[in-house]
Write a structure and sequence with these properties.
The chain has 407 residues and is α/β, with parallel strands linked by helices. Helices cover 45% and strands 15% of the residues. The protein folds into two domains: 177 residues, Periplasmic binding protein-like II (D-Maltodextrin-Binding Protein, domain 2), CATH 3.40.190.10; 206 residues, Periplasmic binding protein-like II (D-Maltodextrin-Binding Protein, domain 2), CATH 3.40.190.10.
Length: 407
């Protein structure tokens, strides 16, 4: 028995995880990101956790993202919530506000190498209600060959959107079929560029009124549409069914704002390309698309559940499995975990992925989230189509958002 405990202790020291002593405890883990492509990877992480925590068994349940939150909500309402479950950021806020999640503050290992801003994203009213599991971000991708042909210096971390405009103008001058830039004009880009402005907020501080029609927000939306107005960015009609990504791969687009998930799609592009942190208006702000892991407030196995949540999100084993299998990126400030990832080219500047984590921005969230997103998106589309000015659209958006937060 002493020899067994000694060997367990050696294992724990080797992988850096403190075991939770439990006897025949089974915790249910519900996930949407593991199936179907990463179930074996998840099994590898579970095996390491169970070896370090004898007596605890992790039982996996999966559902596709389209069905996941309907099923999770049904389990919560019925009193049969899984002990541990995945949440994307938007849904995290809703579950935290509804007292569905366990406060993890007392269970959190202070030495866990989470990016501080990523950890903060999964706090609600200052309380750690979930742990950041993985992240993706959005960068500025650029065609180095077109920049060279146009005689323009490559983007830097200090670029503003006016720098991008100047480069796009020069690249557009290379030919009628060559475009300067593509950056979508929709809700997801608008809230991010609002944060880059620094003065455009969707709501006032106590969430009693929308401020989306402020001058700063109007200026931000006008900036977004100006690239089309100046013929630097193709409209949907001019794309003629070709995706913005395909246009970039064709070598006819100088810059594109898109996610790091496009690295593999662009890998075989027949030209040199690289990435940089997205330009700013008044300050940096980068998308932070994140999944987190929460523990049910009603679990009977809080200690074991919290231990699994932390192992899954911050252990070296989990980090190495995720990076090796391209199963999203762990939100951990531990360069050694990403050495192999950073060595892969293109792009050469993969460090920009992590530089963007210095200024992450998450979407504004309300209880009626989907209705807000759809309403703002529809009105932005009317601006793009020339039916409304930015001011008219955001005045209407304010009215609709005020109604959503009042009910």
């Amino acid at each position: 028995m002493l020899r067994k405990l000694f060997l367990i202790g050696l294992l724990v020291l080797a992988i850096g995880i403190v075991p939770v002593l439990a006897q025949d405890t089974t915790i249910r883990y519900f996930t949407f990101s593991a199936a179907p492509d990463h179930l074996e990877d998840l099994d590898t992480i579970i095996a390491a956790f169970e070896e370090a925590n004898p007596g605890i068994t992790v039982e996996v349940e999966t559902a596709p993202f389209a069905d996941y939150f309907t099923l999770l909500q049904a389990d919560v309402v019925s009193g049969d919530a899984p002990d541990v479950f995945e949440l994307n950021y938007e849904n995290f806020v809703t579950y935290a506000a509804n007292d569905t999640l366990l406060d993890l503050s007392s269970y959190l290992d202070a030495e866990a190498p989470f990016y501080p801003r990523a950890l903060e994203a999964f706090q609600y009213e200052g309380v750690q209600m979930a742990l950041p599991e993985t992240f993706s971000t959005v960068l500025l991708f650029f065609n180095k060959d077109l920049f060279d042909q146009a005689g323009v210096a490559y983007p830097t971390n200090e670029w503003t959107w006016e720098d991008a405009r100047a480069a796009a103008t020069a690249i557009r001058g290379l030919g009628a079929d060559t475009w300067g830039i593509y950056s979508g004009v929709q809700f997801w880009e608008f809230y991010k560029k609002a944060a880059q402005n620094g003065e455009c907020e969707f709501f006032n501080a106590d969430m009693t009124e929308s401020t989306i029609n402020s001058q700063a927000c109007v200026d931000t939306l006008n900036l977004m549409t100006s690239f089309m107005d100046e013929d630097l960015m193709p409209t949907s009609a001019e794309l003629s069914g070709v995706s913005d990504g395909d246009l970039f791969v064709s070598g006819k687009l100088g810059m594109i704002v898109t996610g790091i998930w496009m690295f593999s799609a662009f890998a075989e592009a027949p030209f040199a390309w690289d990435v940089e942190v997205e330009p700013m208006i008044n300050q940096h702000a980068s998308h932070f698309f994140a999944n987190g892991v929460g523990v049910s407030a009603t679990t009977d196995n809080a200690e074991a559940a919290a231990a699994w949540a932390q192992f899954l999100t911050s252990s070296e084993v989990a980090a190495n499995v995720r990076v090796a299998s391209s199963w999203e990126l762990p939100a951990l400030d531990e360069p050694a975990y990403f050495a192999d990832y950073l060595a892969v080219t293109p792009p050469e500047n993969r460090e920009a992925v992590f530089a963007s984590l210095e200024s992450p921005v998450t979407p504004p969230v309300i209880v009626r989230q989907n209705e807000m997103q759809d309403a703002v998106n529809a009105l932005i589309t009317r601006v793009v189509d020339g039916e409304l000015t930015a001011q008219e659209a955001l005045d209407q958006a304010k009215t609709e958002l005020d109604a959503l937060i009042a009910e």
